[in-house]
Every structure is written in structure tokens, then in C-alpha cells.
Amino acid sequence: MNMTKTRKFITPCVMALMLQACGIPDMVTKNVEAPLPGNFRPELTDEANSANVKWKEFFDDPYLLSLIDIAVVNNKEINIVMQRISQAQNEIQARRGAYLPFVNIGADAGGVKPGKYTSEGTVEDNLPLGGQPFPTFVGDYQFGLISSWEIDVWRKLRNARQVAVLEYMATTEGKNFVMTNLVSEVAHAYYELLTLDNQLDNLEQNIEIQKNGLEIVKQLQYYARSSTLAVKRYEAEVAKNQSRRYEIKQQITVVENRINFLLGRTPEPIQRASKNFMELKPKVLDVGVPSQILQNRPDIRRAELELKAANLNIDVTRANFYPTFDIKAGVGFDSFLMKYLINTPESLAASIAGGLVAPLVNKNAIQAEFKNANAKQVQATYEYEQSIINAYVEVANQISNIDNLGKNYQLKRTQVDALIKSIDISVQLFKNARTDYLDVLLTQRDALEAKRDLIDTKQKQINAMVDLYKSLGGGWRI
């Protein structure tokens, strides 16, 4: 090819490239804007962080540890996410193969009978084969290797593979996030079960106290020192609390079944240690500094990886505006008669060709895809910012919650102790006719409600500890 012909070939190609550059829409992206304070509170500056503690070391209850261990293996949601991870891993393999040469093996057979007065028919009539005329039906038999390769000039295919890698990593972080939530849910349900056991025990104790009070009222009625009204009011109070007993038992059944669901199994009794629940003391957690949640929280890390994938996907969609270069080649055998198909070198055939294709008219589809990639990048940025702000707020809320619950629990403890003592005092006063039966009944009722509130506050304390551990990003490390 001389220089003139070369210029005639290159000039249209250059013009085509310029046309592609002019046809790309303006790119609209967003930078991350989510600055974090230096600490959660002025007095909290230590960088030690309880999120680094594995859940097997964080929880002390052997029954709870056993339940979490089963849930991690059997939970259906975890297993569903694992399949998503497998799919994302397969996508990496698929995109890796996209920028490597494709080699296929194939065979083809066909035939044609040209008309006598066509150019092909005239040639066959006047060109005998080895002294014999051409057959009436001319075959076409092929067998060989066919190769094609798209040259990744604009890194479109390699970037697409990197997008798949980032999406795979994001899916893995998604699994860690599910793991964190699962550990938290099992712990919450377990401690709720302990709470209900203690509520039931408290109710049973109160029923016994009220039964004793009922007997006292009956004896006093016998000696005309009390009325039938007092007896009936006590009987009603006992019946009310006895009916409450079955409500709590139903709640226990529901919570047990919820735990079994999280463990991926059908309902069965849940072993637990309920007796020492009120003596449990929430652990004091090290919250570290806010910037550490960026490394410890799986949901933030997933959002960050999704943002990186969205940024890179813009380059992938932009490359659709540029020309694609591909090379096609083949080698094999080709013959019009089957018996000549593998004759060498006569039937040996080869081909090679290169191509350049670029979109020129009606680029609506690739323009829409490019705009979608831009919109997804902006969306991913907002989601990343939202996950950071949400994480900070969750930690700050739980730090405050733990402090306030601690003070709340101490005051309720004092209230319960005072009411328990007042029960004995009111009974003695009633026996000596120095107070009305209603004072005794109301004192017992107040003591029951106060003890119930105290047990609920203990549950809230333990749950706040679990929630802070989760908010810091703990619970997914095994």
C-alpha cells in the first residue's frame, strides 16, 4: 500500500474517532462529602476499639455462643448471601474471559445447484474435474478452528472485569453485614428470653404473696375484721396475675421459635441460663474514634466498594462510544466433495481479517447507558455518605443510651428495694388494723410493676451493649 492509499485509509478512521468524542454526553458525578468529628465525645479519645473483638470472645454465655455458632452455619439468609457471592465470583471469571481470544472448533456442510445459465453454471459446464464433469449438486464441506479476539484498546473489558471484582468484594462485605445483624438478632432474642423467664418468675412470686394476702384477708373476715369486698378484690388480683402468666408463656414460645428460625431449624426448646440474669453487668466497650467505623463497619465498606465500582463503570460505558477493534482468523479444511475434505495441501484453507466498528448514527442506547452509569455513581455517593452518617449517629445514640440506662437502673433498683420492704410493713399494719387492705393491695401491685420495669431495664442495658458492639462494626469476625 502506497502513502496515498494509506492516507485515504487513515483519514476516515481519524474522522470517525473525532465523531465519537463529540457524541459523548457531559459527565455528571459527585464527590464524597461526609466529614466525621474527631471523637464521639470530648472525653472519648482512646483509639482502642471493641469492634475488633470476635463475637466468640465478646459473649460469655456458653448457651448463647452455641446458638450463634449454629446460626452462622444454618441461617438461611446467610446461605442465600453465600450463593450471591458465588454468582459474583463467576461473573469475574466471565468478564476475565471476555478480553482473551476465543477459539472454537466447528464443522459445516451444505450444497448448491447453480442454474445452467448462471455464471457458476457456465463455468461448471466448461471446466471438467479430472476428465469428469462437475457434479450436478455442488457441496461445501468445512472443518477447522475459528478464532476471534477483540483488542481491548480502551480498557473497556479489563475495566468491566475490575467492576466485577469490586462488586464481588462488596457482596462479601454484604455477607459480613448480614453476619453482624444475625449475631445481634440472636443475642437480642436470647436476652429477651431470659427477660421473660425472669418476668414469669417475678409474677409467680407475686402470685404467692397475693395468695398469702388472700388467706390473711379471709381469716380477718372470719373474725369480722375485714369485709367480703377485700376478699373479692384479692381474688380478682390473683386471677388477673394468673392469667398474665399464660401471656408470658406464649411470649416465651414466640421468642423461642424466633430463635429457632434464626438458627434455620424447626421449633425446639432453647437451653438458657436465666437465674443470674439480674446480676449481669453490661461490658464497658471501647468505642475508639469515629474514623475507625469506616474500616470496621461492613455496610460502610460495602458502600465504598459499590461507589468504586460505579466510578469505574463510567469508564466502561464511555468506551462504548469508541471504535472496537477485532481480529478474526481460521484454519482448517474446505472442499466441495466429502472425499476431498482432508486432502492436504489441496483442501487446506486459512483466513485472517481485522475489523474496526464504531457507532455513528442512533447512539441513544449507549448514551442512555452512559447517563445511567453517571446517575448510579451519584446515587452510590449519596448511599456511601448516608451509611457513614447513619453509623456515627447509631454509635452516638448507644453511648448516650448506655449512660442513661445505667442511671435509670440504679434509681429503679432503689425503688424496688423500697417497695419490697413496704410490702411487709403494709401487711403488718393491716393485721393490726392500722391501714386499709387497699394499701396492701396497691403496695403489692406497685412492687410487681416496679420489679417488672427493673427487669425490662436490665434487658435494655444488655441490648444497648449488643447494639453498641454492632454499631461499632463488631460481630462479623470469627
Kindly describe this structure.
- The chain is α+β, with helices and mostly antiparallel strands and 478 residues long.
- The chain has two domains: 3-98 and 153-322 and 364-471, Outer membrane efflux proteins (OEP) (Up-down Bundle); 100-151 and 324-357, Single Sheet (Outer membrane efflux proteins (OEP)), CATH 2.20.200.
- 62% of the residues lie in helices and 10% in strands.
- It contains eleven helices and four strands, in the order H-H-H-H-E-H-E-H-H-H-H-E-E-H-H.
- The protein has helices at 3-22, 55-58, 62-74, 76-98, 119-126, 156-222, 228-262, 293-296, 298-318, 364-431, 437-471; strands spanning 102-112, 138-151, 324-335, 348-357.
- The chain has a four-stranded antiparallel beta sheet, with no helix packed on it.
- Residues 1-7 have low confidence and may be disordered.
Spatial sequence of strands, sheet with the most strands:
1-2-3-4
Which H/E pattern describes the elements? HHHHEHEHHHHEEHH
Q: Roughly how many Å is the radius of gyration?
A: 40 Å
User: Whole-number average pLDDT?
Assistant: 85
**Residue fraction in strands:** 5-15%
The separation of the N and C termini measures: 67 Å
CATH fold node name of the largest domain: Outer membrane efflux proteins (OEP)
Q: Any idea what the CATH architecture of the largest domain is? A: Up-down Bundle
CATH superfamily grouping of the largest domain: Outer membrane efflux proteins (OEP)
Overall geometry comes to: elongated
